[in-house]
Design brief:
It contains two helices and three strands. With 70 residues, it is of the alpha+beta class. The protein has two domains: 39 residues, no CATH class; 29 residues, no CATH class. It has a three-stranded antiparallel beta sheet, with no helix packed on it. The chain is elongated.
Length: 70
């Protein structure tokens, strides 16, 4: 029986800051768990709290220079 494996993709580009993806495979080489790790805290989640739903994309898309449309 094969042992569990870990695949790590690092760095992940197209995100602001540093990121990586970790994929855990079980003994049958099937994905058991996949995680996206972004270590920078941007904090904009706090100031969009309480905003109307349709206001959020207009605000958030201006925070990132990589993605003009969120």
């Amino acid at each position: 029986m094969a042992e569990q494996r870990l695949i790590e993709i690092s760095p992940v580009t197209r995100v602001e800051g540093h990121g990586k993806v970790t994929i855990h495979l079980n003994h049958e080489n099937e994905v058991a768990e996949a995680r996206l790790h972004i270590v920078e805290f941007r904090g904009f989640e706090r100031f969009i709290r309480g905003r109307l739903l349709w206001e959020v994309p207009v605000i958030v898309q201006r925070l990132c220079g990589i993605c003009p449309v969120s």
